[in-house]
Design goal:
Helix content is about 70%, strand content about 0%. It is mostly helical. The protein has 2 domains: about 1-70, Rna Polymerase Sigma Factor, Chain: A, CATH 1.10.1740.10; about 95-160, Arc Repressor Mutant, subunit A.
């Protein structure tokens, strides 16, 4: 393997954590899910094709998050998700902050697999092939479901426009 484990962690930890945050809506639980995914990567790193590490890691992270969601009690109150260290820039107006918060809430409100599709494709810029590998969907399904997810986002965000 050409890259060391530490390089892999540096390269992919933010993407894995963001995916876990969107799915779990709890930063500390997202950290735990990511740590478990990286432990699995540590044990399997030599048997994974270096070109497929990112989709493999995203799939393991997502599956771990879905397992955690299944174990939750239906009445369990979810914590509000906040982006860590989010400091608005001087040019960022109140409307943009509200729109950004609304977009995060709207993405969090999407059902699976729509939420994972939006996070992987639109937030992390994974290729359609990588998204398909992570979610075990063919390219046609990825495009169709992504279209539906974006349509839902547009409809829910339409009321926020100025």
């Amino acid at each position: 393997m050409s890259r060391t484990f530490h390089q892999l962690v540096d390269e992919y930890q933010d993407q894995a954590w963001t995916l876990a945050r969107y799915l779990l809506k709890d930063p500390s639980e997202a950290e735990d899910a990511c740590q478990e995914a990286f432990v699995k990567l540590w044990h399997k790193q030599d048997s994974i094709d270096p070109e497929k590490i990112r989709p493999w890691l995203m799939k393991v992270t997502r599956n771990g998050c879905l397992d955690r969601l299944r174990r939750r009690h239906p009445t369990e109150e979810l914590q509000e998700w906040h982006q860590p260290d989010a400091v608005p820039g001087p040019m960022q107006g109140m409307h943009q902050q509200e729109l950004g918060a609304r977009l995060k809430d709207t993405i969090n409100g999407l059902r699976e697999p729509y939420r994972s599709l939006v996070v992987l494709r639109d937030v992390h810029q994974h290729s359609y092939e990588e998204v398909g590998a992570v979610l075990e969907l063919n390219i046609s399904q990825v495009k169709t479901y992504l279209h539906r997810a974006r349509k839902q986002l547009r409809e829910q965000l339409a009321e926020v426009r100025p």
